[in-house]
Amino acid sequence: MSFEINLHFPDGDYTVKMPAVPRKGETIEWEATDERASIWTVTAVEYTAYPDQEGSINLTLDPPEQP
Q: Is residue 2's pLDDT more than 70?
């Protein structure tokens, strides 16, 4: 089973399929358009349900804090 998830980055949005829904505070690896992978932190998870329709899962992501 996989979940269709809307990822909301500071510079744009993407829709992807993931095997599980990350929780707030977890990190995911994302390959940027310049093909460099980076680690992003999930700062919000929103589940939206609609009567008689499929709902949506939205993640807000921020880059990790720099030391």
A: yes
**Chain mean pLDDT for the chain:** 86
In degrees, to the nearest 5, what angle opens at C-alpha 12 toward C-alphas 52 and 60? 60
Q: What does the alpha-carbon distance between residue 57 and residue 46 come to, in Å, rounded to a whole number?
A: 6
Helix (H) or strand (E) holding 41: strand 37-50
CA distance 66 to 50: 38
Predicted model pTM = 0.80
Give the span between the Cα atoms of 54 and 26, in whole angstroms: 25
> In this prediction, what percent of the chain has a pLDDT beyond 70?
87
Strand order in the sheet with 12-18: 12-18, 3-9, 53-62, 37-50, 27-31
Q: In whole angstroms, give the CA distance from residue 60 to residue 50.
A: 20
